[in-house]
Automatic annotation (TrEMBL):
The keyword Oxidoreductase does not apply. One of its GO terms (molecular function) is histone deacetylase activity, hydrolytic mechanism. One of its GO terms (cellular component) is cytoplasm. It comes from Thermodesulfatator autotrophicus. CDD domains: HDAC_classII. It is an enzyme of class 3 (hydrolase). Residues 20-305 form the Histone deacetylase domain. Keywords: Chromatin regulator, Hydrolase, Repressor, Transcription, Transcription regulation. This is histone deacetylase. Belongs to the histone deacetylase family. HD type 2 subfamily.
Length: 347
């Protein structure tokens, strides 16, 4: 099978609080959807492993890793909106290890596309602190694994979560080996992700931020990804595509203000798969980030998996509309002006 899912009961045991939006029911709803006959035959299941202390320090301060480790068996409030329960540390270790298992499956030929359906999420976690429901930065550690263990030199991270992946951006802000592309609602939490944040030193131009106003839907997102991500990826020619797959851009999400439907999300999956197929033999790893509508999560994850399996849920007329209609948010002019120096295809 071309598709593998990394899942485990431990991810249901991380519980940051009774009324917390990042609750176990998020994954319960997704896992339940995966058992339905129309989708259960599309993938194989992989079990995660625990990341080691040394692996975590590829991206995080040793003292911070120890701080999270000390929460094992306890309820601890790490920041205003990030908390642990007794099994959160184990879940966090396996959320990171799920990335490594997924990449191992991809590079050994067991699967072409892998979706790590894990909790807690990761893209806000910084070098030395928890943030935004995140303990360790899962996707950043996947990139470090690809650099250190697989010897890759060009990794594309695409973050379509509603919120800017500040932790992931910081992880590679001075690197030319990892290209970080983010579309996100702005201004909004965490307050980062301006167009002018483009990287530093060798990394200048390798951070591409597309901050979007609330209210953007399928056509706006399709335009952003067709007209900005595709040309940049064409020039960068990644050896691996990683996706921070947050589904809080869904039109019914209680924490977001975007209007994207599962069809629009399927189209984003189509484009990242297209990049992976063209440049890196289909090597594509997605990992779950946000998304707080239970129905939105189930429908969106299913739409992505159907797209990866070649059973698209996108109606022909809708596909034509997304591929032929340019509904450009104003910010794209600014993005092009800043990045055409680095990525001539944008000019």
């Amino acid at each position: 099978m071309a598709i593998a899912i990394v899942k485990d009961e431990i991810f249901l045991k991380h519980n940051p609080g009774e009324y917390h939006p990042e609750r176990p029911e998020r994954l319960e709803k997704i896992y339940s959807r995966l058992e339905k006959p129309d989708i259960a035959e599309l993938y194989k299941t992989l079990a995660p492993r625990e990341a080691t202390f040394e692996e975590l320090t590829w991206n995080h301060a040793p003292e911070y890793v120890k701080t999270v480790q000390q929460t094992s068996g306890q309820h601890v409030q790490l920041d205003a909106d990030t908390a642990t329960s007794p099994e959160s540390f184990e879940a966090a270790l396996k959320a990171v290890g799920a990335q490594f298992v997924g990449l191992g499956a991809i590079f050994s030929g067991q699967a072409q596309h892998v979706f790590a359906l894990v909790r807690p999420p990761g893209h806000h976690a910084e070098y030395d602190r928890a943030m935004g429901f995140c303990l360790f930065n899962n996707i950043a550690l996947a990139a470090h694994y690809a650099l250190k263990k697989l010897g890759l030199k060009r990794i594309l991270i695409v973050d379509w979560d509603l919120h800017h992946g500040n932790g992931t951006q910081k992880s590679f802000y001075t690197s030319k080996e990892v290209l970080f592309f983010s579309s996100h609602q702005y201004p909004y939490y965490p307050g980062t992700g301006r167009v002018e944040e483009i990287g530093e030193g060798e990394g200048r131009g390798f951070t591409v931020n597309v901050p979007l106003p609330a209210g953007c839907g399928d056509l706006e997102y399709a335009t952003v990804y067709r007209k900005i991500l595709l040309p940049v990826a064409e020039s960068f020619k990644p050896e691996l595509v990683l996706v921070s797959a947050g589904f809080d851009i869904y039109f019914g999400d209680p924490l977001g203000g975007m209007q994207v439907t599962p069809i629009g999300i399927a189209y984003l999956a189509r484009l990242v798969k297209q990049i992976a197929d063209k440049h890196c033999q289909g090597r594509l790893l997605l990992t779950l980030e946000g998304g707080y509508s239970l129905q939105g999560l189930a429908d969106s994850v299913a739409a992505v998996l159907f797209e990866l399996a070649g059973r698209s849920v996108i109606p022909t007329d809708k596909l034509e509309e997304m591929e032929e209609t340019d509904r450009e948010p104003e910010v794209l002019t600014h993005v092009r002006a800043i990045h055409k120096t680095f990525w001539p295809e944008l000019s």
